[in-house]
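Protein data sheet
==================
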Amino acid sequence: MGGKSNVAKTTMIEAIYSPALAIARQLDGSELRVGDRGKWRIAITSADPVRPRAGWFHLRVALADANGTASQTPIMTGIVSGGGRGVKPWFECRFYPEVTTAEGITFDARGCGLEAALIDRLGELVPDGGHLMVEYESPGQSMTHAELLLRVPPAATHLGALMFHAGFRGAFKDWYISEGGHEGPRKLQANKSPNAAAAAVARRTHIAELTDFIKQPLPKGRADGEIVARAQNRARAILKEIRK
């Protein structure tokens, strides 16, 4: 639905003491710059407690126009946690490649670079030791799903490369089987290393996996071959960045 940005009302205790809401407020109103394609602002249209979880909030994240009016459909939905008890803050999200504005115009948010810009912003909000988990089973993320099925290293997939660029350069995990806790569709998790030693291990692992991947022959099928070729190009770019 359209409307002004609104980090939803909560109890007074939650409003004062919730690290998750503090993170949500930093996200709300953030400007997303996409080069010469204009600039947009994030509008959180709802932030509802996830019961019975403590400190988790479900967000609906829209794009605001120049008047501050939120888009009809979100660019992202998901959960933010402020962490606690040794766990650092994290996001669990679903991204929507297409967004419908308040005026009813649907446009390619991914093609405009807004998906990447939003993930970059999340990377600024999650500290070392935190993580970002992104659902890839929905139709809008079929590219990443297909890449993982073809054994592309997680960091070289569409979503993985965006998360890596945003600073999530620690270990990756493909949650292709739900394992207790807060279950749901398949997700790709990218971590921020908690310290320099863990970062060095992750760096060596990424270099080894991506170097091996770019040496592999392409699948014989044309469609699969094109998917893997694009992923290998991403892997080369990541390796070049890592080795700077």
Notes: DSSP finds seven helices and twelve strands in the chain. Residues 8-14 have pLDDT under 50 and may be disordered. The longest helix spans residues 222-242. The helical segments are 12-17, 19-27, 114-125, 142-149, 158-165, 196-214, 222-242.
